[in-house]
Specification:
Elements (H helix, E strand, L loop, with lengths): L1 H15 L4 E3 L7 H4 L4 H9 L14 E3 H9 L10 H19 L9 H11 L8 H19 L14 H7 L9 E6 L2 E6 L1
Antiparallel strand pairs: 1-2, 3-4
Keywords: Calcium, Cell membrane, Cell projection, Cytoplasm, Differentiation, Lipoprotein, Membrane, Metal-binding, Myristate, Nucleus, Protein kinase inhibitor
Protein name: Calcineurin B homologous protein 3
Pfam families: EF-hand_1
Length: 194
């Protein structure tokens, strides 16, 4: 809505310190992100050209307000008047954004190493969990992904990674639409990604 865009514009101006663009370092002023274990991946996602709906790959050095709106559109809440086709497109857009967060080398696959990195980052705040345990969790999850997406594999067959189609299969039945959204509270915009 126009009211939400106004809220976002105020937030953009606050983050950019009244400049025309935001750079990665501007995200340092967001207290809620400071303690998020995947803070780097979240910030990276704002500058990922794939999420900015640009044809090229890589990272933008800075984003303008239009780019900021594009990124925030992935977090818009579901609308009650959406038909099945719109809901499906809406869901795929959100999942593509998440997929890009995991696929750090931009090759169209989430490899075991990329998944290990994410799991290690997520669990890095737990002092009782060793790095080897985090790797075991990632390895087990990747084996489960292979069984869901490929089925029974032969002894010499290697699962090279999760494609976006695989990612869609894995998220089937999980309600991403209500878990990845922005809530507008008072005069400030606070992004919550559950």
């Amino acid at each position: 809505t126009s009211e939400q865009i106004e809220h976002l514009h105020r937030r953009f101006k606050q983050l950019s310190r009244d400049q025309l663009t935001i750079r990665k370092e501007n995200f340092d002023s967001i207290p809620d992100l400071e303690f998020n274990p995947i803070r780097g991946k979240i910030v990276h996602a704002f500058f990922d050209k794939r999420n900015l709906r640009q044809e090229s790959e890589g990272l933008a050095d800075e984003i303008n307000f239009e780019d900021f709106l594009t990124i925030m559109s992935y977090f818009r809440p579901i609308e009650m008047n959406m038909d099945e086709e719109q809901l499906d497109r809406f869901r795929k857009e959100k999942l593509k954004f998440l997929f890009h967060m995991y696929d750090s080398d931009h090759d169209g696959k989430i490899t075991l190493q990329e998944y290990r990195n994410v799991v290690e980052e997520l669990l890095s705040g737990n002092p009782h969990l060793e790095k080897e345990s985090a790797r075991s969790i990632a390895d087990g999850a990747m084996m489960e992904a292979a069984s869901i997406c490929v089925g029974q594999m032969g002894p010499d067959q290697v699962y090279e990674g999760i494609t976006f189609e695989d990612f869609l299969k894995m998220w089937q039945g999980i309600d991403i639409e209500t878990k990845m959204h922005v809530r507008f509270l008072t005069m400030e915009t606070i992004a919550h990604c559950y």
